[in-house]
Amino acid sequence: MKTAAIAAGALLALAATSSACAQAWPDKPVTLIMPFPAGGPSDALGRAVAAKLGPRLGVSVVVENVGGAGGSIGMQKLARAAADGYTIGFGTIGTHAANMIMYRKPLYDARKDFEPLGQVGSAPMLLLVKQGLPVNDFPQFADYLRAHKATMSYGSAGVGSIAHLACLLLLSDMKAEVMHVPYKGVAPATTGLMGGETDFMCDQTTTSLAQAASGRVRAVAVLTREPFPGLPKVATAQSSGRTAIDFRSWNALFAPRGTPPAIVDKLNAAINDALADPALVKQMRDVGVEFPARADNTPGHLARLVDSEIARLRPILEARNVYID
């Protein structure tokens, strides 16, 4: 009985401390670690969200770019930060799923080193082909690929990039092997596609919508379950029977493991409030970013998403020996 009483008292004390901490927090600026260079789509989204998050927290949210190793350097810094709510980080399907598989010695553990806070947007992936390829929809692309896969190639922003992962998922479902041409970024990869250096690529709407809408490349399929409103005439691959093809670039915020639950809850509420801002919704929708429903945007849901993405990508990457030393 005495042991149980002591344990109960300790839990009450912990809860009281956490509650008091949350009430006092925040009383100074919050740092948002962006694990990618300034100027890219992740950085743009992170800064847009940070601008709306600050007023909800009552303090400024300062973005700190810490690029390198596919986001691993920045995420390692977040994992080592004090778990007091004053340092949070911007994670992606790359930093929290692909990096756990591709790197033989990851700099952090995506499932053990962080407290999930909530998603901050996702972007559907598109299957894009060069103008000279004689296909206009996914069935035609599938037929052409079967007949010419030995001579075809696809481009990406580099090994392990979201463009690479999406095409690997696509080709795995189609049981096809095609030569991969990695570029140093999505811009040169898109330029290579427009110039006919490669035959196709998979890219997120945030960086390919303008080229697809202008006709400089041809979008032949949306690689998510739902159609993309920005390209209403482009059907999904799923509508052609490819039910396993559902891939989007997602982004989320995380805190160091051990951040008090009350602060995690406060951050999650602030994130959802920020994502409901009409100006932010319009700004992001115009570039192809979609926000999750509030009911689905919980720390628990994000934790399950990380687990499921690691499980989905592992067999695909391991089968093709996609590793980075």
UniProtKB/TrEMBL annotation:
<keyword id="KW-0732">Signal</keyword>
<comment type="similarity">
    <text>Belongs to the UPF0065 (bug) family.</text>
</comment>
<keyword id="KW-0675">Receptor</keyword>
<dbReference type="InterPro" id="IPR042100">
    <property type="entry name" value="Bug_dom1"/>
</dbReference>
<dbReference type="Pfam" id="PF03401">
    <property type="entry name" value="TctC"/>
</dbReference>
<protein>
    <submittedName>
        <fullName>Tripartite-type tricarboxylate transporter receptor subunit TctC</fullName>
    </submittedName>
</protein>
<dbReference type="InterPro" id="IPR005064">
    <property type="entry name" value="BUG"/>
</dbReference>
<feature type="signal peptide">
    <location>
        <begin position="1"/>
        <end position="22"/>
    </location>
</feature>
